[in-house]
Amino acid sequence: MALKIVKGSIDRMFDKNLQDLVRGIRNHKEDEAKYISTCIDEIKQELKQDNIAVKANAVCKLTYLQMLGYDVSWAAFNIVEVMSSSKFTYKVSCSQLQLQSVDAVLITTIINSVSLPLVTQDLSSPNQYDTGVALTGLSCFVTPDLARDLASDIMTLMSHTKPYIRKKAVLIMYKVFLKYPESLRPAFPRLKEKLEDPDPGVQSAAVNVICELARRNPKNYLSLAPLFFKLMTSSTNNWVLIKIIKLFGALTPLEPRLGKKLIEPLTNLIHRALDLLYGMVSKKNLMEIVKKLMLHVDKAEGTTYRDELLTKIIDICSQSNYQYITNFEWYISILVELTRLEGTRHGHLIASQMLDVAIRVKAIRVFAVAQMATLLDNGHLLTGNMQRNGICEVLYAAAWICGEFSEHLEDPMQTLEAMLRPKVATLPGHIQAVYVQNAAKLFATVLRKQEGTTDSLAAQETSQLLIDRLPLFVQSANLEVQERASCILQLVKYIQKLQQKEVEVAEEVTALFAGELNPVAPKAQKKVPVPDGLDLDAWINEPPSESESEDEKPKAIFTKEEPKHTRPRHTEVDEKELARRREARKQEQANNPFYIKTSPSSQKVYQDQPGVEHIPVVQIDLSVPLKVPGMPMSDQYLKLEEERRQKERSERKKKEKKKKREKHGRGRRADSGPESEEDITPAHHVDIVTEEMPENALPSDDDDKDPNDPHKALDIDLDKYVYDVQGNLQDGSQVVVSVIFENKTDHFLKSMEFNVLDSLNSKLQRPEGSSPHDGLAVPFQLPPGVSNEARFVFSVQSIVMPQKLKGTLTFIVKTEDASTHEKLDFKLHFTCTSYLITTPCYSDAYAKLLESGELKSSSLKLEGVIMPFHHLLARICFHHHFSVVERIDSCASMYSRSIQGHHVCLLVKTSNQTVSIDAKCDEPSLLGNVLDEIKHTFSQC
Amino acid sequence: MIKAILIFNNHGKPRLSKFYEHYSEDTEQQIIRETFHLVSKRDENVCNFLEGGMLIGGSDNKLIYRHYATLYFVFCVDSSESELGILDLIQVFVETLDKCFENVCELDLIFHVDKVHHILSEMVMGGMVLETNMNEIITHVDAQNKMEKSEVRAASEARVLSIIILI
């Protein structure tokens, strides 16, 4: 007997463990099935031994084989046997086996006869992990019998002192309920208690179980709603929150009152998500994101939430000066679609956006005007019986845009007619005022058109129309409307008189409104230089004895005026007065469409204006959303935009190919990345009108570049600025940049100086004694049309990341009569590839390298590569400095070394247009960047 | 409920499979194959959730997956689970593996599949989420590893002792 034990122990030392099994399987790739069947035979032998350790090892191997799809049910008895061992190690492996695959009858008998006492014994074991493993195992093979017998034990465990046991016990109760439903009723109070367990893990387990239960039968769990509500507002665990929201989703259909209570906490959650969106948008996804938001706007119940969505959409679109908008037609249609919202408080916001876009994006005006005309035409739909509603504010913008840019109108007469409808008189006063003023502008345009043709009668009819309709506005209670209307009425009457005398008046009427109104930069005033000899603080007159007179108060157009202040005459103005003025100025700027609002704060002021606050918001329940007829759907733009981008992409590719063919020599072009953000060109040439600055404004540091840059005249094509970056083999910290300068001007270039802004990592090597900001003289001059090459050495510390350096080239251009000093900015791109050096490697050394296990791996997949495999390899070799180690059919291994001695190994495989590259390197970030660059190379072909 | 958790590599080789419902070995292999076909065809930039995979649960089945380097982590769940919640869980799982194996890679999963099972059993039990807090998971895994080690050491010492005595 003793001998047998010894023999068993010694044998054990030569047994395969799980790792050996895995290694064996991997080494027998060709005859895997055969190898595994011998392994299974071995396992069978092992299971027959008395030694429990041997058996446990065998069971451990079975778990692996089961995953590979081999039947292990024949070992069920042994598995249970090992499970019953007293050693923790052995049990762990068993609990992983999916024992349910065993014949149900067999297992019931086995468990009932052998392991029931064991499991129960385990359940009260002093060690929490013993009990834990037993519970985990049990979760895999609960049977109705086991559930019945163990239910009360597990219930006791739910109040165990250790949270680790409690949470496992709570979770497993669900399985017990499923198999033995009678246990639910007695166990439920305790389960409910666990919802308020001090340990978050137990709490989350209880929520999990109740959610699963409630999914099948929600109405039994309605009584728990208050408890869950409390949890939802107090819990910070995302998992618990998600589960509770899911649960409420099932409960609300049964208890409608619940819905109302949920709005607040839920909107809080949603707001957090919306804030995330703000930072997430890019040119590519903006349209898609806004489309999704618009869907939510349509579905949203409750005006508060809808308003929130609306402001978010506008915030997202207008952020950083419309940076992400590539198609303004789309944006205008979004704004128009937003006007369909009933009961929104943000009519103002939409209106200010419409004005801002129409004024600043010239190319969009034709489109915007057409849209606004339709809006005006359907103005009654917007106002309807809701004239107290905030959305009618958009008509203010619509009327102004139609008036100011009336030359783009297709049918100005119709718009004029729409603006003078009697219904307009029900609009708020400040809107009517804009209507009246812009009707006059439209009138001018219409007259011009009509006088241009022979039909002079039509022109007179137009005048008559105004004379008929304007009196309605003259009677307005609003002073502003009244004043404008009567002024214009008199003007038109006079015009009519002239018309009757067959005098051409259109020219003069138009002159009334001539001149373009450009937006003024908020900083403009600050920028006006004070002329020499002007002392703003000096008195012009004798100091007046009384307060300032208001005689020369200028009259502002279009807006409700706050009293405007002339330049302060007192040098000492008290704080209060200053604050008041600032406030007044802000108000004024907010109302002035010509003022560009830079910060959201000024927009806020706009919303908080008392006028809006006082409009009572009447909620009207309309089940059918209003549709403004004839409006384009923004969706169409989305589709169009996608098609356009597609086309552009293919065109760009064509172009690039052409360029490549034209390209001569060795240099790789540095720019032209994969389709990046900046590459998406706007739909039409959109110029965001630069803000108007006073003449001879002083340039200051915080300002953007002057558009009238004198360098525009300089005709140097940046594309022709070719360079090549190469690592220095001898020195691991040096790279040499060869730059080819080509003079494309007609003039002689001399005194060229090359300078680069050093980064922490990369520095231009300058001669000793020079400061790090000095430039390096280029050792030659360039006659017109000539090119030459110069080399510059850079020292580099870390080579694992690509880098871009900014630099400037200054030079003197010599013309016949004068010479000017010019400069050219450029960027140097140090790719990771440029740090690699083609190094040959023998296959055995290569294999050794791979085996060392010190290399980190990564992989890359390229789709749709249509080129022969050897071309592909050549391309990688050429562009990325690799050498082929070995090539077998459509599979090749490649090698390269960085200047700092990093090994980079590639395994390239191809099969029908898909190329997969598995790569290994001792520096993961270098590898990642090199792979990105390879991907980039292939995305261009 | 989570019905199955699968990890396979870019070629469809299973690296871990854990089924919380009972299927025959053949069906399990079919499910893995089917899931691999569904998931591997998808681009890197498309949604991480998909419905389908008729073998598990029929229509009430969602696949939530993430692709890390050479491995796909796929959770098959029913409609009671939230997609984003599960996605977060996958992240927790992978981060935990990364902590336990120090820079986890496919080979770790191949050779230490028992350990991966072990970690997983601290996160998901019987198809229900047990713990989502990574620190908590790691604490328990470490404690159990320690226990195992001390047992193994004790056992081997005992064995050596017994051999010496008997010889």
From TrEMBL, chain A:
Entry's localization field: Cytoplasm; Golgi apparatus membrane
Comp. bias intervals (Basic and acidic residues): 552-588, 638-653
Top-level taxon in the UniProt lineage: Eukaryota
GO biological process terms, semicolon-separated: anterograde synaptic vesicle transport; Golgi to vacuole transport; neurotransmitter receptor transport, postsynaptic endosome to lysosome; protein targeting to vacuole; synaptic vesicle budding from endosome; synaptic vesicle membrane organization
SMART domains from the UniProt entry: BLVR
GO cellular component terms given for this protein: AP-3 adaptor complex; axon cytoplasm; endosome membrane; Golgi membrane; presynaptic endosome; terminal bouton
Record membrane topology: Peripheral membrane protein
Region of interest called Disordered, as start-end residue ranges on this chain: 535-608, 637-683
Database matches in Gene3D superfamilies: Leucine-rich Repeat Variant, Longin domain
Coiled coil ranges: none
Broad class of where this protein is predominantly found: cytoplasm
Start and end residues of each AP-3 complex subunit delta domain: 573-719
Positions with biased composition (Basic residues): 654-667
InterPro entries: AP3_complex_dsu, AP3D_dom_metazoa, ARM-like, ARM-type_fold, Clathrin/coatomer_adapt-like_N, Mu_AP3
UniProt keyword Magnesium, yes or no: no
Kinase keyword on record: no
Family per record: Belongs to the adaptor complexes large subunit family.
Function: Part of the AP-3 complex, an adaptor-related complex which is not clathrin-associated. The complex is associated with the Golgi region as well as more peripheral structures. It facilitates the budding of vesicles from the Golgi membrane and may be directly involved in trafficking to lysosomes. Involved in process of CD8+ T-cell and NK cell degranulation. In concert with the BLOC-1 complex, AP-3 is required to target cargos into vesicles assembled at cell bodies for delivery into neurites and nerve terminals.
Protein name per Swiss-Prot or TrEMBL: AP-3 complex subunit delta-1
Origin species: Denticeps clupeoides
Lineage per the UniProt record: Eukaryota, Metazoa, Chordata, Craniata, Vertebrata
TrEMBL record, chain B:
InterPro entries in UniProt: AP_complex_ssu (IPR016635), AP_mu_sigma_su (IPR022775), APS3 (IPR027155), Clathrin_sm-chain_CS (IPR000804), Longin-like_dom_sf (IPR011012)
Stated name of the protein: AP complex subunit sigma
Lineage: Eukaryota, Metazoa, Chordata, Craniata, Vertebrata
Source organism (scientific name): Denticeps clupeoides
Domain AP complex mu/sigma subunit, first and last residues per copy: 1-147
Sorted UniProt keywords: Cytoplasmic vesicle, Golgi apparatus, Membrane, Protein transport, Transport
CDD domains: AP3_sigma
Cellular location(s): Cytoplasmic vesicle membrane; Golgi apparatus
Keyword Cell wall biogenesis/degradation: no
Biological process per Gene Ontology, one example term: Golgi to vacuole transport
Biological role: Part of the AP-3 complex, an adaptor-related complex which is not clathrin-associated. The complex is associated with the Golgi region as well as more peripheral structures. It facilitates the budding of vesicles from the Golgi membrane and may be directly involved in trafficking to lysosomes. In concert with the BLOC-1 complex, AP-3 is required to target cargos into vesicles assembled at cell bodies for delivery into neurites and nerve terminals.
Topology relative to the membrane: Peripheral membrane protein
Main location group: membrane
Recorded family membership: Belongs to the adaptor complexes small subunit family.
The UniProt record lists the keyword Protein transport: yes
A GO-annotated cellular component: cytoplasmic vesicle membrane
